[in-house]
Amino acid sequence: MHKTIPIKSIATKDLNNPTPRLNLSSTEDVRREMCKVYRDARLNVIPSSEATRLIYILGQILKAHELLSIEKRIIDLEKLQITSSYES
Fold it and tell me: Which of 47, 40, 56 is nearest to 8 (CA)?
């Protein structure tokens, strides 16, 4: 059985040891981190309240990635439309 870490020890640990920097530069990176958080919550490595907070934050990062992707696609389509209108 997996050992449950008390919330107090997590808070103390966080103050003494800053969280390592995560690579969340792609939607796949964010999805992978969400899966890790989910597994940690299921195994009682982190409290479910902490997992909920982290998943919410990761979800916001994921939305930002999606919006950026859509914005780039729109810009590319607008450029293509402008280029094709000059050729006509």
Answer: 47
Closest CA to 41 of 32, 54, 27, 56: 54
Is the entire prediction scored with pTM above 0.90? no
Q: How far apart are CA 58 and CA 50, in angstroms?
A: 12
The pLDDT of residue 85 is 77
State pLDDT tens for residues 43-78: 999 999 999 999 999 999 999 999 999 999 999 999
Residue 58: exposed, middle, or buried by beta-carbon count in 10 A (0-12, 13-18, 19+)?
A: buried
Using DSSP's 3-state secondary structure scheme, residue 26 falls into coil
Sign of the C-alpha dihedral computed for residues 62, 27, 25 and 78 taken in this order: negative
